[in-house]
Design a protein that fits this description.
By secondary structure, the protein is α/β, with parallel strands linked by helices. It has one domain: 3-Layer(aba) Sandwich (Rossmann fold). The chain is built from five helices and nine strands, in the order αββααβαββββαββ. The strands form two sheets. The chain has a seven-stranded mixed sheet with strand order 5-6-4-3-7-8-9, with helices on both faces. Strands 1-2 form a two-stranded antiparallel sheet. Helix 3 packs across helix 4. The longest helix has 13 residues. It starts with a helix and ends with a strand. Bound molecules: adenosine monophosphate.
């Protein structure tokens, strides 16, 4: 089944800019059995730990993280791009290829010692996930792991997430 997930991912060349091969996951989302299988596999990355909160990263991470949270019967927490969260937030900046971006987390989104599983669709350079990890570490989260549907291993993003456990379903 990971093979059918892999073959459903559409490579879009030069999107959103020249030189990027964008991994389009919408064909997986549009296929009921494949979407379910993706969620099944992500749910197997908890390391057997009881999860209090599944944390998703804006925006495609929300799709997977919220479904995983529902399946595990636990809460969902969004890490959002700057300016979207209404309550008191913590924020951190991280480097993009050109310039920087800011992500935010509600201050009360995770209580100290709560067990979290961080989920996003894709690990590229690891900057986005590392920023989310920093915010969650500041709140005292206990990491069960960080899980991705897709990992672009040639970008070595995993090295930015040490010492946390990183799981990916499909590696390129
Ligand atoms: P990074 O911070 O470099 O690990 O980038 C990860 C974020 O950017 C994820 O939230 C992805 O959704 C998105 N992203 C980066 N590269 C790609 C790609 N080649 N295809 C699809 N999404 C990507």
């Amino acid at each position: 089944m990971p093979d059918s997930l892999r073959s459903a991912i559409r490579d879009v060349v030069d999107f959103p800019k020249p030189g990027i091969v964008f991994k389009d996951i919408t064909p997986i989302l549009a296929n009921g059995p494949l979407f379910r299988r993706a969620i099944d596999l992500l749910c197997e990355t908890t390391g057997g730990r009881k999860i209090d909160k599944v944390v998703g990263i804006d925006a495609r991470g929300f799709i997977f993280a919220s479904a995983v949270a529902d399946r595990l019967g636990c809460g969902f927490v969004p890490v959002r791009k700057k300016g979207k969260l209404p309550w008191k937030t913590r924020q951190t900046a991280y480097a993009l290829e050109y310039g920087e971006a800011i992500v935010e987390l509600h201050e009360d989104a995770v209580k100290p010692g709560e067990t979290v599983l961080l989920v996003d669709d894709l690990l590229a350079t690891g900057g986005t996930a590392a920023a989310a990890v920093k915010l969650l570490d500041e709140l005292g989260a206990d990491f069960a792991g960080i899980s991705f549907l897709i990992e672009l291993s040639f970008l070595a993003g995993r090295s930015k997430l040490a010492p946390h456990t990183v799981n990916s379903i499909l590696t390129y």
